[in-house]
């Protein structure tokens, strides 16, 4: 069936009136509100011009015509007159029929419409009698009768109605609901006082908010509310993308909002489906001019994760179209991080692989008078109220010659660009497709001096690679029209672009330019400085890739941009490390203790300590030295008893040693010439022989010296890029205490031969990871994250 699309478009430019809207059954206020929506008003105008010649518009028909106007998608619009006809001749009488009709048209916008199939799909001619409805309701009530009697009017009626919608798809919903209500009344009688009483809601435990100036308490509070922030997500990316990613099926691109079809779409989609074997194909397309950051972790997980969840494949494609900023180390680092996160690309490709094809397509666009060579300067093209280029209407022949001259190096940089005859959603006019750069490319050398832009390259490379789902962050939504326009202008397969919300994190910057500034000012050491939120930095700090993936999964799949506090990532890291990082003992700032009666205790020289004491079923353990001289944290001893809340060693208070069941009692202090305590002499007894102490502390004997780096937030403010709050710029917001280095921490011998990236939980302190700066003679540890309660320093 062929409809007059041209006539429909003419109707759309005419606006509807208030009287028309009232005729459709809208209220005065709803009509006034609708008139403010120019696009919807024009659509309603077209619908009414089709409907009025077909007869009187009753209230029921008016409601359906209005619903048609609001649900109409561009792919279905040309077939709107068909739906109007069936509404007006009573073929379509209910909202479910209308929804089914639109769904059929959407599904067949490329395949073609067959009237018998259309009528069958939306129940045209199906008569649902009252008797039929009564019988269906009786059957459903009987199925749930026992539970209805038990719960009475508290029973979830929506469940019944859902079942009835399945068995009576074309029945009038209002009639079905009325029949259900009547059967409830017959079965249960009128509502009693108890039925009418409001149901008590279970109170959720209140989260006590900390004072604004209590930084550490705030951190703890934010960590405890992590579950609330993760309410939209899932435990794994596979679960998230299987249950929350409602994308189109392979080959059904035309069903998505805004997708533009052409006479060649059906043929191109058929070839595309054959090329991919009906499987999902995605891609992750980073620019190789910097390292990846935490926001990229979301993009990697969504692109690779969706392909994996759907049994498809994902390519890693380097968008290497700007030779000025690209370096080999970034290519290597990006691929390394993708693998670290647990993903293996089906193919590693480069936009530069397609330079020749992209150039030929640019020539084709010029030949179709859809692109032109322009000599405006960059500053003249920027903004949203720019003047049209005076060179826009050059002849095709001149543009072909000038573009050839650009390719052959006859213009200086900035003297000429190739622009597309297109206006983006955001109002940007004629985006640049090619610019001149006399810079050798790392892969193609000096072959090219013209390079395609991202906007031009992105969609065309997606088409070349037969990408089924082009998944990108929301800022690319404004480029979707140019994406579809380019593919259709060249008569090539057009993928579907889907957007999701970008992930940002407070107290950091992720801009490549800003990170480079931090490096050049020696604020941080390099791209992998553990205070940054690049993925190489997070890995160096000891953040497990599994925790990052779970963090992304828990955030969910939303369109809104997310700005997350680091504590939410910390919560996922703790959860993972708590069951994967073996425990050991380490003393960061040691105080020597000598047990004067050690020989009398007849203790063994070593003791076995469980690696995972919270899991009694885990047999893994390590051996620690036991000696007369041990070391404890200086903060675990106080030389007086004035602080009654202090629970550890004092002259009058005993303390226990973890894992060996000894209780220490103060004997005397040893001080240096300046009066500083350098040693404490103690007496020990076994736990069985004395009173149980108020606290047990960690300790080390015969330890090995190590360097420990304690990291805090790099910036003091949540948003260091806020120009109003920080007029001096982000560099003025640096936290001077973001790094503390302890050069003589004491670790147990059992971890002395650890490898880079090995992770441990230092008991009562936090989680730590071996740094790459470690040597055979001295290990270096980075603090990954503190314990949930702040560690030993936060306890009495």
TrEMBL record:
SUPFAM superfamilies: Nucleotidylyl transferase, Ribosomal protein L25-like. Residues 696-771 form the tRNA synthetases class I (E and Q) anti-codon binding domain. Keywords: Aminoacyl-tRNA synthetase, ATP-binding, Ligase, Nucleotide-binding, Protein biosynthesis. Signal peptide: none annotated. GO terms for cellular component: aminoacyl-tRNA synthetase multienzyme complex; cytoplasm. Its EC number is 6.1.1.18. Residues 581-682 form the Glutamyl/glutaminyl-tRNA synthetase class Ib anti-codon binding domain. GO terms for biological process: glutaminyl-tRNA aminoacylation. PROSITE patterns: AA_TRNA_LIGASE_I. It comes from the Eukaryota. It is an enzyme of class 6 (ligase). Pfam families: tRNA-synt_1c, tRNA-synt_1c_C, tRNA-synt_1c_C2, tRNA_synt_1c_R1, tRNA_synt_1c_R2. Residues 19-173, 176-270 form the Glutaminyl-tRNA synthetase class Ib non-specific RNA-binding domain. Residues 196-230 are annotated as: Disordered. One of its GO terms (molecular function) is glutamine-tRNA ligase activity. Residues 279-578 form the Glutamyl/glutaminyl-tRNA synthetase class Ib catalytic domain. It catalyses: tRNA(Gln) + L-glutamine + ATP = L-glutaminyl-tRNA(Gln) + AMP + diphosphate. Residues 196-222 have a biased composition (Basic and acidic residues). Belongs to the class-I aminoacyl-tRNA synthetase family. This is Probable glutamine--tRNA ligase. The lineage of its organism: Eukaryota, Metazoa, Ecdysozoa, Nematoda, Chromadorea.
